[in-house]
Structures are given as C-alpha cells and as structure tokens.
Amino acid sequence: MIDSAFGVLFDGFAYGMLLFVLSVGLSVTLGMMNFINLAHCSFAMLGGFVTVSLTNGLGWPFLASLPGAFASAALVSVAFERGLYRRLYGASELDQCLLTIGIVFVSVAVAAYVYGTIQQPLSLPAYLRGSVSILGHSFGVYRLFLIGVSIVITAALVAALELTRFGAQVRAAVDNQRMARGLGIDVDRVFAVTFALGSGLAGLGGALAIEIVGLDHAFAFTYLISVLIVVAVGGLGSIGGSFLAASVLGISDMAGKYYFPELGAFLIYFVMVALLMWRPLGLFGKR
Amino acid sequence: MPSATLSEPQRHLEAQIRWQPLEIAFWLATLLPFVLTPNHLVLASQIAITALFALSLDLILGYAGIISLGHAAYFGFGSYTAGLIAKWGWGEPLTGLLIAAAAAGALGYVTSFIIARFRHLALIMITLGLGLLLAEAANSAGWLTGGADGLQGVRMWKLLGLFQFDLYGTTAYTYSLVVLFLGFLLARRLINSPFGLALRGIRENAVRMPAIGAASAAHIRKVYTIAAVMAGIAGALLAQTTETVSLDTLSFQRSADVLVILILGGAGRLYGGIVGAIIYMVARDQFSHINPQYWYFWIGTLLIAVVLFLPNGILGGMARLVRLERRAA
After folding, report:
1. Which residue is closest to B303 within chain A, CA to CA?
2. What is the distance between the alpha carbons of residues B285 and B273, in angstroms, rounded to a whole number?
3. Which site in A8, A56, B35, B177 is 20 to 30 Å from B77, CA atoms measured?
4. What is the total count of domains within chain B?
C-alpha cells in the first residue's frame, strides 16, 4: 500500500512536471498581454513532431532533437504572434478564443495530413530507458530525467525573471502594462521574446511528452484542457503558482486513475471548478 | 439626439417587434424542403435542432455577452432526460420534451448562480469545467447512460397519437421546425423587451449596469436558465427524432461546434444561429465523404477568417454590404 502510494506520488509528480513545462509559457504570456491563446498546445505538438521527424527520419539522437523542438516552436510562434495575434490584443476574449481555436483546428488537420492519425513511435536511447533502484524503491529513469529537466527549467526561469534586466521588464509588464510603457519599456518587444520563449518551452514539453503520454494529431486538443487548468488554477503570470498547480494536478490525476479508475477525469474537473469558485484568480493570481 | 423623448426607447422596441417582409419570407422558405428536397428531411430536422441550440447560445453569448465553452451540457442533459424517459416506457414525445426542458432548466438554474458570479478567464474555465464534468459523469455512469455505446432502446410513440416518426423524417422535420419556430418567437419577444435591452447593457458594460441600478446578476441568472431550457429542448428533439443518445451530445466538440455555427452566422442577431446552422450542416453533409480531420481544417480557416475580416459573422457582413449599397445609391 505504502509502496504503491509512493509510486503514484512519483509518477504523478513526473507527469505534473511535464504539465508545468507545457503550460508555464502560457501562464506568463496570458498574464502579460491578457491574450487567451488556446493554440498554445499546437506549438507543443509542433515540437513533438519535430522531435519525431529528427530522431526517426534523420536519425538524430533524442537529446540533440530537444533544442530543435524548442527552436522550431519558438520561431513558428513568433511568426504567428507578429502576423495574427498582434491584431487582436485589444479585441474581446471571444474573438481571441475563436481565432486561436481556429488555429488549433487547422494544426490538428495539418498534423493528421502529414503524419496520419496514429500514435507516433519514438525510441529512446538506452540510458533513458529502464529504471533504477534507490533505497528499495524503483524509479523510471526517463521520469527522473523529466523531473530533473523541469527543475532546471524552473530554476532558470525564476533566476532569469528575478535577477536579469529583461526579467525585471517582464515583471513590470505583467504587473502594469501601461506604467511599464510609460517608463520606456518596449513592451511589444518584451512580449514577443517572452512569447517565443514560452512557446519554445511548450515545444520542448511536447517533445518530452511523447514517452509519457504519447503523441498523435489530436495532441493540441487533448492537452489544451490540462494546460488551461494549470494556468487558471495556478494564477496568471505566476511561475510558482503554475509549478504548484501542475504538481497537484499531476499527482491527483495519477492517484485518481490508480485508486478510482471508474471515475475517470471527473475528479480533476471537480477539483478545478471547486478551486476556481473559491479563488477565481487562481491560487497565486494577483488580478 | 436633442429631440429624444421618454417614449423613444419604447418606439425603438416597437419598431423592432414589427415583422419585416424578409423575415416572413425566411420562415415561409423553411417549408420548401418538403417540396424541393423530400429526401433530405432528416438533414433538415437536424438543421432545425442545431439552429435551436445555436439560438439558445445566442441568448447568453450574443446578447448577455457570457462566453460559454460548455453549453453542450444542457443540450446533452435534455437529450439524456428525454431518451431515458422514453426508454423507461413513456414514449409520448410532447410531455417528454417538457420534462426534458424542465430538467435542463433546473440544471441551468442551479449553475446560473455560479455563472453570474464570474467573468473573464475564470468564467470561460468554469463553463468548460462544468461541461467536462457532466460529460465525464455520463461516461462513468454506464449503467444509466450506456456509456460509450450510447443509450439504446429508445422507442417513441406517435406524435400527438397520429404521426409516426418515419424513416424519411417528415414527422421529425415538422416537429423540429414547429418547436424551433416557437423557440424563436420566445427569443424574439425576449430580446425586444426591456429585459433584452438590459442584457445588451450587461454585454456592453458589465460594471456600469449595476451602477445604474440594474439587477445584473438576476438578469444573467434568468437568461442563462432560459437558454438552458432551450438547449435542453434542442437536445430532447435530437433524442426523440433519432431514437438514440450518445455521449457526443455532451462533448466539448459539440460546445465548440455550436459556438462556431453561431459566430459564423453572426452572434447577437436572432437569425445568426439559424443561418449559421443551415450553412454549417449543409456544408458538412456535402463534404461528408472527406475525412472529418480535413473538414476541421476548413472550419478552422473559416473561423480565423471570420474573426479577422467579418467581425459580425455572415449576417453582419451582409448588413454592412446593404448599408454601403444604400449610401452609394
């Protein structure tokens, strides 16, 4: 019993870290521009497919393909931001939702056209497979790797936001966009860079997700809801909030699947609605 | 307007209530399928049902400005209620419809207390979450709903004891069309009343309305409940005319589809949902041979185009064309 609880906790935390990498970019960009980007997971899916193509098609090693996933998602997202999103920054939430849902529809169809509707195969290198035993518990190596990567990313993000000049500009823009503009910060440029970084992280998350949850053409839809839950529950623009919300969501999802399989995802949605009713701005939301 | 008098809003409302020749022509044209395409009446009945569903969304989204990504909850709830009543041995359509409407309305009334409290992202997430919650509950309660296999064994009696639901859909279309028309009359009356004006006020400025003394929260609760009743009736119609209910009636996909339909036609215009439903359903029927994956490519492209170039949907675009024409003449 205790052993299974430990396993659920570990697997759930690893899954939560995956959700965190997928969603942290959306949290920051939503907090900054109030732009509801439902197509965030389309960029994640792009990263996943880039990794599949690089490793299976061109024979790149898995680790070398991860920067490719990051860079391609970041580049494509900037093109979208400049070309489409920019026009709707002042528009209604409904218009933003509709535009980005449209992009999700298109991306799902394009993925189905190019890659078919099957689960994408991915063979991990030997050193990321199997499991290791520590203090009598066995841990999946890939999940350990995933947790390690996420913690490094979190530390880097927090450090960049708290310690660098650019991070200070981002925080200023999130807290009060007009005031930041008044102080001479080029909010548009800051936002474009942040958007690219956030989408790049999503792309990286998409690539990392293949081994845990699989990748098919519908990824942009399937994980959109989980990502939105993390962002809404964690609070906009809060990295710590996203981290906590993603961990809770990952662990409770895994526990629900393990202990109450007949309930399905019911528990997750229930917790989300209850949390949002309690705190509409999320656990750490400021506005 | 310096010459505005106290009766000005009333005159405006009265002008809106008058039936335009184009409207009468439109409703007469809905009878055409009986003559022109008698082999496609099943499709026509589906269009009428979808139009009623879109109309119900229009009441809350187009008029009160409440964005819902989970409106299928009420559609599916009405659908399952009507299906279950018939399955349990009471196959009378009209009373089944009323019971389903009441059930969906009760659900709508309970949830409206939540809806009225929130706006912005939290509201979108809560509507989405409530919809998913109900879909998951229906999926889990396989003993009641049949789960992924759908609800089997729904048998309807004759409509009014006279008309059998036939394979050609003659009864189904007549029935759906009459209910759609009644729903439309109700919506039209509602929108052109002071209550309807208050709803538009909430849409335009949600903070100002309470400040001038309007009971915003109560208005939102009321319109949300009415929209839930209407969506439940649409769902019940679908269950009764197809004699089956699937989980798909509660799905996020259905919520998204009806949103697309309404936006395509033009939100905040009574005919937007109906026109959108006609175009969407006919196009889907015409392209049904292509893979649904690719169908969504075009839907997505269309959505992007509508948001960027046609902010008020097809009807809004047409209204603008007419205005330009008049100015040129």
Report:
1. A102
2. 18
3. B177
4. 1
